[in-house]
Predict the 3D structure of the following.
Amino acid sequence: MPSTKPGRELVASYLKDNGIKSTDLAKMYGMTKQEVSNYLTGSKTNPAANQFILKVIRDFKI
């Protein structure tokens, strides 16, 4: 499975620059804050994590 680190870093940077909290992102996508946190930190790197990162990049046009 390819690394999602570049995508995670891109999303984290975008969220920070735009004042978006992981709790806000969790609400937008109907997820728990813990799920979003796990995906953004890379503690979970399963296919669902990859899909989430890619979806955020597409949705926010990062």
Remarks:
- Helices lie at 5-17, 22-29, 33-41, 47-59.
- Residues 5-17 form the longest helix (13 residues).
